Amino acid sequence: xxxxxxxxxxxxxxxxxxxxxxxxxxxxxxxxxxxxxxxxxxxxxxxxxxxxxxxxxxxxxxxxxxxxxxxxxxxxxxxxxxxxxxxxxxxxx
Length: 93
What we know:
The chain is mostly helical. It contains two helices and no strands.
């Protein structure tokens, strides 16, 4: 997610993570309420909810864990680094 959404885990990372959490929780609640008369879908939602909770926990941990990549991890790859000899950023087009 940090690669796909520019700035997802920068200084406003916690705000992004909380907004993501709110949207995911709201989505699960809407499904649960909307399909309350269907036991098969209710069971599917309850099966999906723990997986979604793990993903939300990882997104919430992102602002603290990704402030600086560990030394030697090779991130970002040289093709994405800015500087002399690097390709122009997409914003320049």
